[in-house]
């Protein structure tokens, strides 16, 4: 921003961008940049009334930025609260004489209070809908059964089970929360439901406790208690006990889990369960930025098994993951493989193929939308048929690729365009104002730039030949898009000092003579410059620090 701006519109980074200094800049760095800009914008250096007026506005803004950033207390408030934090009226957030450390501590306290107020208004709903589909008739039918049926005898596909569950949280105090959950299930015409009420209390920073009461038509009343406790920095314990009352009597149950962080990315678990299905389980889980690995062994009645799974995480915008697992035990063996990917800002779609003996082949499709989960297990065959495995693998993949190309990408692209259009409409008047201010700043720089160029040419120093800032279209697939750039050759040459140009890690639209030509879109800075008579060129991201000249920017004379 290159001129006077309404105080409420200034972002936290504007003062730093205006002075072109780091957020960690020392007093000497601030003073050096301030003096340089004062020499450039001093009103007495311009005779033209209009230029003199623009210079006075820029001079006052630079002076205001320096006053704020050079004072430790004001700078601490500005870093945390932005420009509004510096307004005395209506802001009783901190005492102005406190140290920066005390100001930050006060800010953290206020943040906690705001979080507690938000907590009181949050119910955090979570839900799951599961629909089981029996499609075994697609692969396990007998042809002669359909010979006499009308319409060619289409295979019969039916929904044989359904499960719906929902829970909400109601914060009562900062440490007490009530949780209400319920579920409904049906399987082959028989169904039932249950409802559970739990009360959770955070006892300290190290743990919490929970008591619950539940009832349903298929089971009697259930009473339970659960506790969580951090034993050490690397070890924690979860214990749960319950008691179910039914026509067969009282059935108690106890579950304990002891976990320990083996290293930064690995946790080991020991689990013991006593009750209707007693078992002992041990597992190791390793989760890194690129992978997730689990190894588990369980000894129990009726289930004893060994399981190993691995998940690879691609480092792409869609957060794609591929996974595979093997599970073998008294029940048989199951091999699963699948993938999941992000299809929108709040939605993740996944598909898993399950191949087991004696379970057969199944396809499991899952959609996570915010805090809601939709699960569709499709049972294809009770036998290990290659055709079922093939269609379970290829079918969802082809369907996803078609939907991605024909529906998802066009929809997301349209949504992004609508959001950008709204941003442009909201910022159109402000952008026009910034553009005018930037053009005025460039006029003020002309004389200084002429002197800088003369000095640099005399010693074969740094000359900015051309510089553009904005959105560049370099991808062939985006040729239809229009580049949106502005010429910033003069503002950059004005920042050259001793044959060097240094830009900090901040949005460059805040530099003098710059403005944002494409609000809401990714921007870059492209510079063609000459140093020691040799051409150089560099393309830098908007918030990336830039230092020139550099040998790596040199343009090979042979190319």
Automatic annotation (TrEMBL):
<keyword id="KW-0007">Acetylation</keyword>
<dbReference type="GO" id="GO:0042407">
    <property type="term" value="P:cristae formation"/>
</dbReference>
<keyword id="KW-0597">Phosphoprotein</keyword>
<dbReference type="InterPro" id="IPR024586">
    <property type="entry name" value="DnaJ-like_C11_C"/>
</dbReference>
<dbReference type="Pfam" id="PF22774">
    <property type="entry name" value="DNAJC11_beta-barrel"/>
</dbReference>
<dbReference type="GO" id="GO:0005741">
    <property type="term" value="C:mitochondrial outer membrane"/>
</dbReference>
<dbReference type="InterPro" id="IPR055225">
    <property type="entry name" value="DNAJC11-like_beta-barrel"/>
</dbReference>
<dbReference type="InterPro" id="IPR001623">
    <property type="entry name" value="DnaJ_domain"/>
</dbReference>
<comment type="similarity">
    <text>Belongs to the DNAJC11 family.</text>
</comment>
<feature type="domain" description="J">
    <location>
        <begin position="14"/>
        <end position="82"/>
    </location>
</feature>
<keyword id="KW-0496">Mitochondrion</keyword>
<comment type="function">
    <text>Required for mitochondrial inner membrane organization. Seems to function through its association with the MICOS complex and the mitochondrial outer membrane sorting assembly machinery (SAM) complex.</text>
</comment>
<keyword id="KW-0472">Membrane</keyword>
<keyword id="KW-1000">Mitochondrion outer membrane</keyword>
<dbReference type="InterPro" id="IPR018253">
    <property type="entry name" value="DnaJ_domain_CS"/>
</dbReference>
<dbReference type="Pfam" id="PF00226">
    <property type="entry name" value="DnaJ"/>
</dbReference>
<protein>
    <recommendedName>
        <fullName>DnaJ homolog subfamily C member 11</fullName>
    </recommendedName>
</protein>
<keyword id="KW-0175">Coiled coil</keyword>
<dbReference type="Pfam" id="PF11875">
    <property type="entry name" value="DnaJ-like_C11_C"/>
</dbReference>
<dbReference type="InterPro" id="IPR036869">
    <property type="entry name" value="J_dom_sf"/>
</dbReference>
<keyword id="KW-0143">Chaperone</keyword>
<dbReference type="InterPro" id="IPR052243">
    <property type="entry name" value="Mito_inner_membrane_organizer"/>
</dbReference>
């Amino acid at each position: 921003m290159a001129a006077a701006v309404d105080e409420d519109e200034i972002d936290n980074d504007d003062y730093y961008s205006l002075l072109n200094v780091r957020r960690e800049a020392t007093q000497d760095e601030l003073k050096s940049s301030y003096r340089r800009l004062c020499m450039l914008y001093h009103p007495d250096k311009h005779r033209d009334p209009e230029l003199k007026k623009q210079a006075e506005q820029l001079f006052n803004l630079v002076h205001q930025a320096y006053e704020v950033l050079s004072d430790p207390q004001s700078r601490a408030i500005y870093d945390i609260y932005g420009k509004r934090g510096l307004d005395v009226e209506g802001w009783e957030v901190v005492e102005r004489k406190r140290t920066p450390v005390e100001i930050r501590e006060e800010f953290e306290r206020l943040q906690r209070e705001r979080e507690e107020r938000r907590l009181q208004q949050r119910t955090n709903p979570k839900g799951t809908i599961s629909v089981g589909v029996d499609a075994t008739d697609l692969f396990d039918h007998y042809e002669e059964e359909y010979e006499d049926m009308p319409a060619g005898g289409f295979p019969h596909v039916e929904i044989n089970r359904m499960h719906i569950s929902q829970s909400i949280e109601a914060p009562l105090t900062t440490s007490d929360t009530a949780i209400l959950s319920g579920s409904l299930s049906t399987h082959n015409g028989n169904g039932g439901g249950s409802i559970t009420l739990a009360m959770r209390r955070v006892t300290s920073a190290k743990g919490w406790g929970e008591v619950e009461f539940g009832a349903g038509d298929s089971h009697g009343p259930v009473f339970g208690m659960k506790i969580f406790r951090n034993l050490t920095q690397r070890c924690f314990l979860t214990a749960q006990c319950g008691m179910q009352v039914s026509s067969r009597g009282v059935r108690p149950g106890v579950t304990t889990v002891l976990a320990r962080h083996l290293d930064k990315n690995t946790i080991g678990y020991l689990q013991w369960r006593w009750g209707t299905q007693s078992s002992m389980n041990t597992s190791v889980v390793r989760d890194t930025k690129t992978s997730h690995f689990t190894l588990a062994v369980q000894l129990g009645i009726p289930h004893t098994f060994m399981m190993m799974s691995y998940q690879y995480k691609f480092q792409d915008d869609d957060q794609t993951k591929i996974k595979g697992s093997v599970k073998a035990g008294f029940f048989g063996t199951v091999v699963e493989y699948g993938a999941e990917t992000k299809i929108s800002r709040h939605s993740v779609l996944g598909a898993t193929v399950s191949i087991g003996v004696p379970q057969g082949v199944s396809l499991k499709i899952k959609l996570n939308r915010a805090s809601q989960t939709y699960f569709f297990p499709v049972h294809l065959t009770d036998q290990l048929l290659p055709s079922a495995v093939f269609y379970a693998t290829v079918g969802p993949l082809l369907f996803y690729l078609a939907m991605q190309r024909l529906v998802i990408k066009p929809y997301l692209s349209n949504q992004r365009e609508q959001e950008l259009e709204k941003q442009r409409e909201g910022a159109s008047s402000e952008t026009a104002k910034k553009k005018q201010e930037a053009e005025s700043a460039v006029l003020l720089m002309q004389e200084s730039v002429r002197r800088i160029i003369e000095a640099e040419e005399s010693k074969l120093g740094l000359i900015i030949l051309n510089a553009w800032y904005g959105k560049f279209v370099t991808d062939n697939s985006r040729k239809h898009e229009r580049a949106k750039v502005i010429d910033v050759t003069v503002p950059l040459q004005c920042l050259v000092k001793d044959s060097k140009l240094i830009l900090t890690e901040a949005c460059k639209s805040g530099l003098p003579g710059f403005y944002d030509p494409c609000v809401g879109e990714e921007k870059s800075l492209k510079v063609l410059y000459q140093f020691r008579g040799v051409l150089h060129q560099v393309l830098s991201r908007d918030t990336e620090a830039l230092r020139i000249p550099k040998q790596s920017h040199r343009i090979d004379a042979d190319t």
